[in-house]
Design a protein that fits this description.
This protein has six helices and eleven strands. The strands form three sheets. Strands 1, 3, 4, 10 and 11 form a five-stranded antiparallel β-sheet that branches. It has a four-stranded antiparallel β-sheet with strand order 2-8-7-6.
Length: 250
């Protein structure tokens, strides 16, 4: 047999042994197939929401990739006085079995929560900046405590209601913001808005239950003179998904 034949035989033998070794490794590395019958699976373009991660709150609309929940609002410039009031208000509700939760990021909405496409974020926020920059700064004050529910009646809110002078300035802002929303075919704000800053919330529709305490709450508010101190508003905020924008007033 020629030397070339010996080399071919040796090569065939080596390849056979290598292939056999690979098969052995594959058998060793083979893992059992997991049982996924009890695992909920979301489509690739959606998000599985777990209300238990945020005190049972339910999304008003499903999260879809590429859609960004957006809100235009006036942020509370100083929460210290309101937080002091909040601790006293909670004492009034000690007889209610349902758990109440403090609201995060105290603010007054000047738009509904709308869905904005990702590719429109830059032009949308730029339009807001241009139109809001022409509005003058103003003082924000509160005069009463009111009770509200969301449109789906899944949550009840206790809120500080803006006074009449503040309402005039807030309506000017809403008018400007609505103009931009209309340009993007998005829902505008409520026709006769009741501007308020939510400070506490409950799961479900408990409006009638909370209203039973409204007189006591407003008496308490009248005693807390510091809450009547007006806040100087110099900017409007906008939240788009997890991004925040600020638009300064004149």
């Amino acid at each position: 047999m020629s030397g070339l034949s010996y080399l071919c035989d040796y090569g065939d033998s080596e390849e056979s042994e290598t292939e056999e070794s690979r098969n052995i490794v594959k058998e060793k590395l083979k893992l059992p197939v997991p049982n996924l019958t009890k695992v909920s699976v979301c489509p690739s373009d959606s998000y599985c929401d777990d209300p238990q991660q945020h005190h049972g709150r339910i999304r008003t609309f499903p999260h879809i990739r590429g859609n960004w929940a957006s809100l235009v609002y006036i942020k509370s410039p100083d929460e210290s006085d309101i937080l002091d009031l909040l601790s006293k208000i909670k004492f009034v509700f000690k007889t209610i079995d349902e758990t109440c939760y403090p609201c995060d990021n105290l603010h007054i909405s000047v738009s509904k929560t709308v869905v904005l496409k990702y590719h429109l974020i830059t032009s949308f926020t730029t339009s807001l900046q241009k139109i809001i920059s022409g509005i003058e700064t103003f003082e924000l004050g509160f005069d009463t405590i009111e009770v509200y529910t969301n449109e789906e009646k899944t949550r009840t809110f206790l809120a500080l209601k803006a006074d009449q002078l503040s309402r005039k300035f807030l309506l000017k802002i809403v008018e400007k913001v609505d103009t931009v929303l209309e340009d993007y075919n998005l829902p505008t704000f409520y026709k006769d808005p009741s501007f308020h800053m939510s400070i506490l919330w409950w799961k479900g529709d408990l409006k009638d239950v909370i209203l039973n305490h409204i007189d006591d709450l407003n008496t308490l508010l009248a005693q807390e003179k510091e809450v009547y101190r007006n806040f100087y508003i110099q900017k409007v905020d906008c939240k788009v998904g997890n991004k925040y924008y600020q638009f300064h007033l004149d």
